[in-house]
């Protein structure tokens, strides 16, 4: 039998500073799952080295050529364990309405019974790792603590990148601390003498959340969002419930710091559905001279209202778990520089020289590639070399544009909140909300056109409110209400950030993009800062406040007056149909959508006028 890692015998006992409740919970899980040994992770470099060596020995990780990319590794997953499994992700609340309608609901008692059975002996022949972690800088008033137990050393090293993991987090858990229990198993016990596989997992998967008891139970997958439970499961699904109860916001948002040529600093938080370029925007390289963008986070923002009524945000994560395909020195040079080394890649292709490759990294693929499953690949193979959801996992501190204040325990003051989707039609480049309520309406109605790839009827709108459809841990209509409440709290204390809607993806009739995107997006961001400073006026339209011609600097973009007009066109008929689609969407919440959002819908309809 292959041993999953070299572990020190002394590591098997709980550190003396571990809180009794943690020790008892770990014992309980170990009694159920029957691992061969228990290891308490301390987060040290030595521990990480040992885990990585073990993962290379068992074949889970391949080392990238260290002369080209030091201390980096490639994991090849099981071919059916490559992405989040939304249909196997559950919210278990006493009342069904508290989870609905965007989550799969299950009765807590029934799910517990099922999980109890599945977890029985599930770690036999494996090591149970105890992974204490802090989400957010340890000691920040916004940070939260948790403990994940897992039988996957790949998950341990990934959690070591994505969170503040180890002894300091464990020390911070005291008898009166509220901490989240996160139990994870790949569900693949080893019988004595049975050889392990590089990526153990189970065809049966359950990613289960119990927000009422602050627990997560994940079975059968080792993939990112299913298994790194600090990320989507805790920092969004469980945290959104904590945020509702405690009056703050846990959001699927990037955070960036923008500095204007005259040295004024602005912080933006922006929500986009998956695969709309959050990581690219967070690492934007401005094409406008004198502007700079620094990165604070690329996926999650935790925000609360401070004493002065300002919204303060932290990036609760310590690393990036980014989509590799499409990332290149042209589209995101900062991400490319970030992963110079110390990076774990999952499901990328490998080059003859032992470095990594994925679609879009270079315009033509190098020869001699091996695909994400380890099979020789040529462009004639008729399938992608890297999995379309191939990932890089890398520490945020390696990012060359990381802001100096990215770990400030107090967080940064948010000046603007931005919502975006991927819309080929209808939605203009940039619109400012007329009020907080209008901004909440824009967030609640974020949408993308379905593509052939995402299933359904092509062109049909897919609503992803606040980009949280898959991540909100309670009733989404109540979540809209929570956003409206936060606005009232800020208004009462004096500070409300501006809200904007953007769309980088509008297309011309011939199917080509109207807007160059990427580094040119600075032009829309610059206009936002001018609105915040009150130095430009705006056009009052049915959709909101839009730029006056000439106020968005287009010099050097190749966007001419005709293209600019198309980017900003409002087709009244199509928008009347869009209003109907929003009404149908609101109706799916069974009367729970707050009145204020219906008022916004009526205002939109009034502004669009009657059909001619
Ligand atoms: C994930 O799939 O684990 C993940 C982080 O999701 P996404 O990139 O879609 O937000
Ligand atoms: Na995914
Ligand atoms: Mn995400």
UniProtKB/TrEMBL annotation:
Catalytic activity as recorded in UniProt: oxaloacetate + GTP = phosphoenolpyruvate + GDP + CO2
Cofactor: Mn(2+)
GO molecular function, a single term: phosphoenolpyruvate carboxykinase (GTP) activity
Gene: pckG
Principal location: cytoplasm
Pfam families: PEPCK_GTP, PEPCK_N
Keywords of the record: Cytoplasm, Decarboxylase, Gluconeogenesis, GTP-binding, Lyase, Manganese, Metal-binding, Nucleotide-binding
Record's protein name: Phosphoenolpyruvate carboxykinase [GTP]
